[in-house]
Amino acid sequence: MRNLLDRRFVSAVLVALTTKLDAFASDSPYQDFVKYVDTVKHCTTLAELKPYSLVEFQKKIDNADPESSKPQLDLMRALYGSWQKLQKRSESKSGNSATVLVDCIAPEPIVMNGKKPQIKPYVLVVSMVKEDDFWKITSTAMKTPQEAADYGIKDSSAMQKDTAWSRDARNVAIPNKLLSGTLQGVPAALSSAMFSSMADHSNLDITIADTPRWKYMHLYVSLNKPPGTAAQWYTENSGVNQVQMTGTIDGQSKTLFFDNSNGCGIKLQLLPKKGDSYPAYMVLRLPDGKHSELKGYLYAKAF
Q1: Average of pLDDT values for 200-219?
Q2: For residues 267 and 254, what is the distance between their CA atoms, to the nearest angstrom?
Q3: Which of 98, 202, 225, 226 could form a disulfide with 93 if both were Cys (CB 3.0 to 4.6 A apart)?
């Protein structure tokens, strides 16, 4: 009789554990983001955040002193607690990576001259990866609605389609022709390129030839490492910090920012300096709602 009760007890525990794990696991990056935010708002120790944290940070949480980590926890609660009325705008997944767009209201992040911060609408751009059957945050950026529109994420379905298409850039063959393609739905051709290299980063400045729709169009590709003595590869999640597109578009000055958090796709091979220029091969796809794509080779003059 006791063995029967023991088996029933073990079975009940297993069912409870399975139910709890199933409730914890999710296939929705947005739902897992909301769970994390809610946990941050109500937790009293960093240890409570361990299941939601990246594996690389879990050991640091284990070793953290509860008392000395209180100020850090207070800052996290203040930040996440300021995000109110969270509402999903969109979520897009590509393998174990995801981008979640969340509308919210929050105080202004920067207030000058001691003024009281105003509560305004913002869009959270959240990058996530899946570990242990749970979507975990890798980065979060807070954008104004205008900045969100400039990111090309005004329409969630178009953004999801553009994100998947853009992230596939690294699988696109680089043609042996001068860099060209389309920007903002219009054929685009290379005008010139320049390359500047500092001790810890580099910048590739690509000038696009004028068209009836735009003038002074530049693409600035910010790299987090200088060129080497051998060919180097850069992608949106390895070496490329940001791609900035700026110019006078349809008569208005406009600057758009793209990076790994909003689905930018880039594959760039930078060759060693030859004479006064750096040869480079590139495929660039921008999630701007217009399938902007440039691919081919260029020579960037060093300065």
Answers
A1: 92
A2: 25
A3: 98
- At 201 the pLDDT is 79
Distance, CA of 108 to chain centre: 21
Q: Which DSSP helix (H) or strand (E) runs through 214?
A: strand 214-223
How many CA atoms are closer than 13 Å to the CA of 246, on its beta-carbon side?
8
Q: Closest Cα partner for 154 from 290, 294, 27?
A: 290
Q: What is the pLDDT of residues 154-165, one digit of tens each?
A: 555 555 567 788
Whole-model pTM: value is: 0.55
Length of the chain, please? Answer: 303
As a whole number of angstroms, the distance between CA 125 and CA 79 comes to: 15
Dihedral pair phi/psi, residue 241, rounded to 5°? -75, -45
Cα separation, 163 vs 159, in Å, equals 6
pLDDT digits (tens, 9 = 90+) for 91-139: 777 678 888 889 999 998 776 666 788 899 998 888 888 888 899 988 8
Q: Are 92 and 98 in contact (CB under 8 A)?
A: yes
What's 271's DSSP letter?
A: P
Compute the distance between CA of residue 287 and CA of residue 269 in angstroms, rounded to an integer: 21
